[in-house]
Amino acid sequence: MDTLTERFEQERARLRAVAYRMLGSASEADDALQEAWLRFDRTDTGEVENVGAWLTTVVARVCLSMLRTRRNHREEPLDGRPEQGDDRRDPEQEAELADSVGLALLVVLDALAPAERVAFVLHDMFAVPFDEIAPMIDKTPAAARQLASRARRRVKGGTAADAGLPRRRKVVEAFLAASRGGDFEALLALLDPDVVLHADRFVGPSPAPVVLRGVENVRKGAVLASERARASELALVDGSPGLLWVQEGRLSVVLAFQVDGDRITGIEVIADPERLRGLELAVLD
Questions:
Q1: How does 65-82 read in b/e, with b if 16+ C-beta sit within 10 Å?
Q2: Residue 281 pairs with which residues in a beta bridge?
Q3: How many Cα atoms sit within 13 Å of 231 on the Cβ side?
Q4: Which of 22, 170, 172, 225 has the fewest Cβ atoms within 10 angstroms?
Q5: Alpha carbon of 262 to those of 106, 167, 172, 258: distances in Å?
Q6: What are the Cα distances from residue 198, in Å, to 139, 149, 208, 275?
Q7: Do residues 55 and 38 lie in contact, with contact meaning Cβ atoms separated by under 8 Å?
Q8: How far apart are CA 51 and CA 48, in angstroms?
């Protein structure tokens, strides 16, 4: 038993990293590791040549089952928020893990089908060969490769060249930095004099949609949202640079920008859950 425990502990950090990237939740990753340990404990692994690979397979299958159950029951996808009375979740630990991966990546991964997510995470993040991934997801190696490729396109937002993308990204990055720092002058320089901000009714606190017109009104709104900006991350929103605000591990608000030259002419603040689900999100390198 001591030998089994020691061998499992040698693999724990890597297995937890695998599980977290698949599930997006520290508590669920720990659940997956606990199940993997139970299977390890009751299986004769004396003839297993590569225990690390064997454990990776077990964790991957456990995570795949959890992802499919979550998808079927429409459970909360990313935050792993505990049931009432379950206080296992450590917010600081969740934040540390999320920072190590990137909140935008976790949000995008959550939009993938379970088998796509497993194939992409194992191959692209942990260099597991497709020959080993295929039996984990009950596919051929060629099918596993296709799933990972499809996931990669979704994560990276496709391959279509957009000559204006770097310029728009620079503007949105500057807006994020100015909002975080409450830099009034920098915001004024970024906003078009006739800029318009639209916020849907889910953004709050007003029960109705909000429209702000003119550079001064939008600047004030950005300054008031500086705390929210500190928890935001750059991402592609429907093919163009935007911002994601993830609250307690859950996608809460998306900012989509209209940029003309070096000025922001429009900002759409989206918090309607139905609209958020319909957005095409991708990670910016």
A1: ebbeebeeeeeebbbbee
A2: 237
A3: 16
A4: 170
A5: 30, 8, 10, 11
A6: 45, 36, 11, 14
A7: no
A8: 6
Question: Alpha-carbon torsion 141, 142, 144, 149, what sign?
Answer: positive
Joined together, the tokens standing for residue 92 give 């600081």
Residues of the chain with pLDDT under 50: 75-88
Q: Residue 195 phi/psi, 5° resolution? A: -60, 145
Which of 263, 258, 190, 184 is closest to 226 using CA atoms? 184
5 CB-near residues (< 8 Å, 6+ apart):
none
Find residue 236's DSSP bridge partners.
241, 282
Question: Do residues 41 and 3 lie in contact, with contact meaning Cβ atoms separated by under 8 Å?
Answer: no
Report whether 130 contacts 123 (CB < 8 A): yes
Per residue in 165-180, pLDDT (tens digit) is: 899 999 999 999 998 8
Task: Write the pLDDT tens digit of every residue in 192-238.
Answer: 999 999 999 998 777 889 899 999 999 888 877 877 887 888 999 99
The answer, yes or no, to whether the previous bond of 205 is cis (omega within 30 of 0) is yes
263 to each of 163, 189, 234, how far by Cα in Å? Answer: 17, 8, 17
